Amino acid sequence: MVEEGILAEWRDEQGFGFVEVSGKRYFLHISAVKRLGAGRPRQGDRIVFQPGTDAQGRPRALAATIDRGPAKASPRRIARGASNGSRFDFFDLLMLILLPVAAIVALRTGQPLFAIAYALFSAIAVVLYWHDKHRAVNGGRRVPESTLQIVALLGGWPGAWIAQHLLRHKSRKASFRAVFVASALLNVAGLAWLSGQV
């Protein structure tokens, strides 16, 4: 038997949510969603799934697919899509300003060590973001957010920012992004101070 319901709640960072069918809610994990070529689930999506239960007997959606056919979207969903449609925002504007500033300050030092450090920590950041995204999708142990922020503070913020957009990971959570921007600002301020000491 196959059911069809609406994804009433979706927590993308944790990779799970709840499908509602006639008042009944089914737990849905990202690992149960087949064919993610259409993109990750979004709140308001129509979900076709095989109903089942977990080890405690609670309703769970299995073998789920996202149906984004031509069905008319509700006004609530249209409003939500308008508010989340663009991924470029104030945080990204700050990053675009910081990138050339950091490059100019690093070049003024005349020390290649700074450029090497930025490249190294940026590469580490990309790997960590990829690993965390992979674990989020497959339900494994996540990379602590503090680790991601420390790598950004040490100079990996350019790579982390690129990874956020390429992987669509950690690019919506406002509290995380605020700390991330603060880490990048502190890093550039520290670089500017060091350039005056060299």
From TrEMBL:
<dbReference type="InterPro" id="IPR010718">
    <property type="entry name" value="DUF1294"/>
</dbReference>
<keyword id="KW-1133">Transmembrane helix</keyword>
<feature type="transmembrane region" description="Helical">
    <location>
        <begin position="174"/>
        <end position="194"/>
    </location>
</feature>
<keyword id="KW-0472">Membrane</keyword>
<dbReference type="Pfam" id="PF06961">
    <property type="entry name" value="DUF1294"/>
</dbReference>
<keyword id="KW-0812">Transmembrane</keyword>
<dbReference type="InterPro" id="IPR002059">
    <property type="entry name" value="CSP_DNA-bd"/>
</dbReference>
<feature type="domain" description="CSD">
    <location>
        <begin position="2"/>
        <end position="66"/>
    </location>
</feature>
<feature type="transmembrane region" description="Helical">
    <location>
        <begin position="90"/>
        <end position="107"/>
    </location>
</feature>
<feature type="transmembrane region" description="Helical">
    <location>
        <begin position="113"/>
        <end position="131"/>
    </location>
</feature>
<protein>
    <submittedName>
        <fullName>DUF1294 domain-containing protein</fullName>
    </submittedName>
</protein>
<dbReference type="InterPro" id="IPR012340">
    <property type="entry name" value="NA-bd_OB-fold"/>
</dbReference>
<dbReference type="GO" id="GO:0003676">
    <property type="term" value="F:nucleic acid binding"/>
</dbReference>
